[in-house]
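Give me C-alpha cells for this 139-residue protein.
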Amino acid sequence: MATIRKSSIKDLDNIAEIENSSFSKPWSIEQLRATISKIFIAEEKKEIKGFIAIDFILDEVHILHMAVHPDYRRQGIGKLMLRKAFEFPANKFFLEVRESNYCAQKLYEGFGFKVISKRKNYYQDNNETALVMERKATA
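Here you go.
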C-alpha cells in the first residue's frame, strides 16, 4: 500500500517523469521546482507512483495538479492522494479538470466535487475548456 509524504527536491526527477508521461503539455522542471514545497507524493517501496500539488488560500485548498504514473493508474493512488488533501482544514476545495477527462471527473465527483463553472480555452495545448469543481468541507 502506498503512503503519502511531503516531497523534497530529491524527488524532482521522478515527479517530472510522471508529469511528462501524464500530460500533453507538462509543467516544466522549473515549474515543478518552484512548486516542490506544495507537492505530496504517493510512494510504495521507495518508488514514487504519483503526486499531488496543493495550495492553501485563506480557508480554501486548491488542488493545483495531480498525476499518477501510467503503470499504476486505477489502483487507488489518486483516491489516496485526494484523501491527503482533505486532511487540511478548509471550508472548500477547488480544482480544474479538462472537460474531456471523464475518468478524472468521475473520481472527483465520487469525493463530492461538483462543477461550479467553466473556463473556456483554459488549456494552452488545445484550447480545451476547464471545468472548475468545488467540494465543500462537509461533503
